[in-house]
Amino acid sequence: MDLSFLAIQALNGLSSASSLFITACGLTLVFGVTRIVNFAHGSLYMIGAYTAATLVPRLLEFSFGPVTFWAGILASAIVVGLIGVLIEVLLLRRIYGAPELFQLLATFGVVLVVQDVTILIFGPEDILGPRAPGLRAPVEILGRRFPSYELVLIAAGPVVLGLVWLLLRRTRFGVLVRAATQDREMIAALGVNQALLFTGTLFLGAFLAGLGGALQIPRVSAHAGMDLSIIAEAFVVTVVGGMGSVPGAFLAAILIGQLQAFGILIFPKSTLVVVFLLMAVVLAVRPYGFFGRPEAIGGTHAVGVASRERSPFATLAALAVIGVLAALPLIGDAYVLKVATEILIFALFAFSLQLLIGVGGLVSFGHAAFFGLGAYGSALAVKWLALPMETAIPAGLLLAALGAALIGAFVVRLSGIYLAMMTLAAAQIVFAVAFQWVDVTGGDNGIVGVWPSAWASGPITYYLFTLAITAAVILLLMRVIDAPFGYALRAARDSTARAEAIGLHIRRHRWLAFTISGAAAGLAGGIYAFSRGSVDPTLLGIPTSVDALTMLLIGGIQTVTGPLVGAGVLHVLRDQIMPLTSLWRLVLGLSIIAIVLVFPRGIVGTLRAWREERA
Amino acid sequence: MTLLSVQHLGKSFGGVAAARDVSFTLQRGEMLAIIGPNGAGKSTVFNMVGGQLRPDRGTVLLDGRNITAASPQMRFRLGVGRTFQVAQTFLSMSVAENVQMALVSRRRESGALWSPARSRCRDEAVTLLERVGMADAADHPCSALAYGDVKRVELAIALAGHPKLLLMDEPTAGMAARERADLMDLTASIADAEGIGVLFTEHDMDVVFGHAERVIVLVRGQTIATGSPEDIRQDPDVRRAYLGDEHALEKPKGMDSA
């Protein structure tokens, strides 16, 4: 390992830092002004790459030269900026006042829509972009060859930083953006045209995302999946830098770029882990990142479960539902039972999340981590320890509970959007471990041969086994929600100041909530592993976390039973619609957006409001 | 006997001294008001006594025990109850449940996982609500109450901790004149009956001169006067501090000098 090699690694780090900064800069600007964490920012980046990879070669056919190339890149970024405007006008404008969870979910709905639409427009194949005219020959640095395009990228980061700085300092628009970042209500009170300001900010943010994506085309081909990989990194950059801070994003991007470049030498397989560990460490020391500021009091607006008179028929209804479910094997065939088993598992998974979100107001965006830890814990126990199902499932539960206790210890200091980002990061760490530690976890292929014990192996018995466990645990959790512990969680959600003033130890309660919730999710994961016979990293991915959140959303976040209904509805819909169309993500994304906009109370919540109005 | 002793308290925010060398004492059963123009540092002093802010300098003693660095939770255990400038209650719960929550916490049962919360300490909560005149609303959702009633509920919550010291930050802000007098009469009678020391900040001079036994005047973070309401009213420094609002310190109409 000589000096020249280290220099090249450092340059590589700087060039990826530049790209990352350009993209993350847009995300942090948009957050600063609108207070929305735009999940779709990665999608805009992807559109930028696809547009440029399609547009630039055509332009180069007309007139070959560097000017055409760079004009094409700029044009692609402008197209993406306009798409950003469209998203602001059609969607974001309607959810500025909504709870953070709804904002995150709605923009994730856009992610799903864009994924399918991108494939519709650009096709399923990766698109390899042209190389930049005039920059094809590598340059020699300390005796090693280095792509000259990368040098241009290294310069692009500081140039964009400079231009954004000028824009923020020297223009009226910039003054308004900075003012809104500091105090949004004041801006409104001063009579500033907010609609224009927000739309303009979205254009700028989307433009930067598009630019970041378009600049990639000579390096990597445009492909589906680049949206989620960049958004995870961009989140880390904005959170580490401090949300809303452009210089913070720059500093964080450089740090992460270098960490990735040199981390690969030390831990060749765990670059993702290194990046997210950095975020965990920074947030543990500075809960608001390098240059971020705590939100003013009253900044969060958690919605959730409220006290209600318990209906005298509640117990009866619960027994009736369990009775009907227990009788299902009498009428359903093996396929129906398989679907029903999965619904029960996901109902438990969603319900465990409801303890955190609906009761505690803790928007966990990485709940898949615990589900996956339970599944992997069980599968690993089978593979490496040759344990039978009866002990492998508790082993998975234990692993998930330990993981939740560890992650919980980090995140209970945080609130609102920082907590959501941190849980997401934690889940990505777990995902990265499962994906990259091939020797133990089987990597991409996962682990197969996770079959239940003989007595439980038939579809009927496994269904009944699942029903017994999920029903028991859900009833148990309902008691916890009704007990002083559940009330204390709600108290901390409703008013932190009041909860502290009556002596409640908020962090301790929240930590225990994380552990309990993680254990329950892990149990669901373990049962799921045995129902399928295998596990793979998708169980730990962002889409699995979003599935659970969608179930809460469909059922109703303010209701205790909502997530159970939501799990059933989502699963049945997926089962019915998926075979009919290849555009399932489009349908799901539009549905999520529609629910956020039209039925924010979900099915159970809407039904209840309707019934109470009639009464 | 001295319940609360605040000595040489100081706090700065980025170069602005919000409180400088503030000292005072409070006796059991006494009602002590902190007044001063906007930005005088009333809330800062208040939050340092309540544990929401950590002072840069000085000490806070409760019953002779140093609580300067104690958390709000710790202060609750030691007998500090408080109400907030903007009332802080648990809006997702019923009125009684709000008080029950405080009672459950006092008994250190807030981590209990099994038996339902809504039946715990119910009778004691209703008794407390009776004292503040809110027993009829025990089962109403807290979110449906008028603001004056929320303030009463907050008082009941604070009393649930069996406080020795009650901190009330602008207890009557946002209330109608009639409600203000009622709430403060109620507070005074409870404080008197149970020997609770009450420290409150207030903008309404009727409330201050009608209910405080002693008054501290803060201006730009410093104490400029301490004394009985009558002394304060006569104090030339205080009059100067309230210049431009000369009538602020005049006797409320229809009240004779006590």
From TrEMBL, chain A:
One of its GO terms (molecular function) is branched-chain amino acid transmembrane transporter activity. The chain crosses the membrane at residues 6-32, 39-57, 69-92, 104-123, 151-168, 189-215, 235-259, 271-291, 311-331, 343-371, 391-412, 419-438, 460-481, 511-531, 551-573, 585-604. Keywords: Amino-acid transport, Cell membrane, Membrane, Transmembrane, Transmembrane helix, Transport. GO terms for biological process: amino acid transport. The keyword Transport applies. The keyword Transcription regulation does not apply. CDD domains: TM_PBP1_LivH_like (cd06582), TM_PBP1_LivM_like (cd06581). InterPro entries: ABC_transp_permease (IPR001851), BCAA_transport_permease (IPR052157), LivM-like (IPR043428). This is ABC transporter permease. It comes from Microvirga makkahensis.
TrEMBL record, chain B:
It comes from the Bacteria. Gene3D superfamilies: P-loop containing nucleotide triphosphate hydrolases. One of its GO terms (cellular component) is plasma membrane. GO terms for biological process: D-alanine transmembrane transport; L-alanine transport; L-isoleucine import across plasma membrane; L-valine import across plasma membrane. This is ATP-binding cassette domain-containing protein. Residues 4-245 form the ABC transporter domain. GO terms for molecular function: ATP binding; ATP hydrolysis activity; L-isoleucine transmembrane transporter activity; L-phenylalanine transmembrane transporter activity; L-valine transmembrane transporter activity. Keywords: ATP-binding, Nucleotide-binding, Transport. The keyword Hydrolase does not apply. Pfam families: ABC_tran, BCA_ABC_TP_C. InterPro entries: AAA+_ATPase, ABC_AA/LPS_Transport, ABC_transporter-like_ATP-bd, BCA_ABC_TP_C, P-loop_NTPase.
